[in-house]
Design a protein that fits this description.
Radius of gyration: 22 Å
Subcellular location: Cytoplasm
Bound molecules: adenosine-5'-triphosphate
CATH class of the largest domain: Alpha Beta
Number of domains: 2
Pfam family, one: SMC_N
Family: Belongs to the RecF family.
Strand order of the largest sheet: 2-1-4-5-6-7
Helix content: 40-55%
Strand content: 15-25%
Organism: Flavobacterium silvaticum
Oligomer: single chain
GO biological process, one term: DNA replication
CATH topology of the largest domain: Rossmann fold
Order of helices and strands: EEEHEEEEEHHHHEHHEEHHEHHEHE
Length: 360
């Protein structure tokens, strides 16, 4: 599977643009603000129907315009596939495959497997548990459409339960039977989410360790630790036990929506105890392990986006990545960098075909 070309209309700083790609290595080079990250994000739209960087969809429409259109021409299993993502102000975003609009975007997730490495990955370490849950969920969802549906349903019921708790508090009332209807649904929906996350972390960890060893100069003892309230209890019991607290807080304080994935080095949080370099190695290993995991499970090498590649890579790590490229670990790669010479030197050293696209 690879992206053959993309066309952009009124997408961020691109009024109208079209790019043809090499099936292996593609590099966007140009000064800061030239739009390199924007093209990578447009590619991301074709896989996930949304931006990796900006959750406010309309902000991806070019200033002063009413809509954007991103069209991607893919080759997948010997067939041409046209994916179009478009948005007009005031309307719902549309995602189409070969002219047919998806009713639910979730049906498209996993069709174009894709992994992105970006300076924003730092948020996975520095931010709260939600970013790490999103990471877990996005990897599992690419491979398991039923998981994504369970997750969507769980969050719908959770929102309803939270609204009910607020209603009770505002009206100084309480109806245990009404709440229990939601509790039972959260119990049924939460259990498979917990089990799938747990299984995923167990399957993913050895791959993560393997990539970490390949990337990191020193063999730090890194680990991923999944933490869930459901480890020792079912959702129904948890909700019963936390009822007084939930009524006081007016939201649901326990369940899989509170899970975390702890990033550790020598048994301590990497956020506090890892050096900059150790944190970078950890994140690269995490994303490359995601690549490998999705690749093994789906039987297809995901498209790999390396945003601002030298943000993460010093010379030593560059060497390791080039080694992996040479060992044919990856499929189609997109790289962005401000310096065309160093990028060209990097990709030339792989001996593989490549294309350099200058922006700005
Ligand atoms: N909705 C929009 N309409 C028009 N231009 C936009 C919009 N959103 C972002 N931009 C412009 O896109 C540019 C940023 O593009 P991008 O982040 O892709 O740059 P880059 O080439 O990756 O730069 P850097 O090397 O600094 O990361 C900025 O000039 C910004 O003003």
């Amino acid at each position: 599977m690879h992206l053959q070309k993309i066309s952009l209309l009124h997408y961020k700083n691109f009024t109208q643009a079209q790019f043809d790609f090499d099936p292996r290595i593609n590099c966007f080079v140009g000064k800061n603000g030239a739009g390199k990250t924007n093209v990578l994000d447009a590619i991301y739209h074709l896989a996930f129907g949304k931006s990796y960087f900006n959750p406010v969809a309309v902000q991806n429409i070019q200033h002063g315009e009413e809509f954007f259109v991103v069209e991607g021409f893919f080759e997948k299993s010997g067939r041409d596939e046209l994916i179009v993502c478009s948005l007009r102000k005031g309307q719902k975003k549309i995602l189409k495959r070969n002219g047919k609009a998806y009713d639910k975007f979730s049906e498209h997730i996993g069709f174009i497997p894709l992994v992105i490495l970006s300076p924003y990955d730092r948020d996975l370490i520095s931010e709260g548990s939600e970013t790490r849950r999103n990471f877990l969920d996005s990897v599992i969802s690419q491979l398991d459409p039923a998981y994504l549906q369970q997750l969507i349903s769980y969050h719908r019921v959770l929102t309803q339960r939270n609204a009910l708790l607020k209603y009770f508090a505002a009206n100084r009332t309480f109806e245990a039977e009404t709440l229990v209807v939601y509790d039972e649904q959260l119990d049924v929906l939460g259990q498979p989410i917990f089990e799938k996350r747990k299984q995923f972390v167990s399957d993913f960890t050895p791959i993560f360790h393997d990539f970490h060893q390949r990337i990191a100069a020193d063999a730090d003892a890194v680990s991923l630790r999944y933490e869930s309230h459901l480890e020792n209890n079912g959702t129904l019991n948890l909700l019963r036990e936390s009822l007084t607290r939930d009524r006081a807080l007016q939201y649901t304080s326990t369940g899989v929506h509170k899970d975390d994935l702890h990033f550790e080095i020598d048994g301590h949080p990497i956020k506090k105890f890892g050096s900059q370099g150790q944190q970078k190695s950890y994140l690269i290993a995490l994303k490359l392990a995601q690549f490998e995991f999705v690749s093994r499970q789906s039987g297809e090498k995901p498209i790999l986006l390396f945003d601002d590649i030298f943000d993460k890579l010093d010379e030593n790590r560059v060497g390791k990545i080039v080694e992996m490229v040479n060992q044919d670990v990856f499929g189609q790669i997109f790289i962005s960098d401000t310096h065309s010479e160093r990028t060209e030197a990097l990709v030339r050293s792989t001996g593989l075909p490549f294309k350099i696209i200058s922006l700005g």
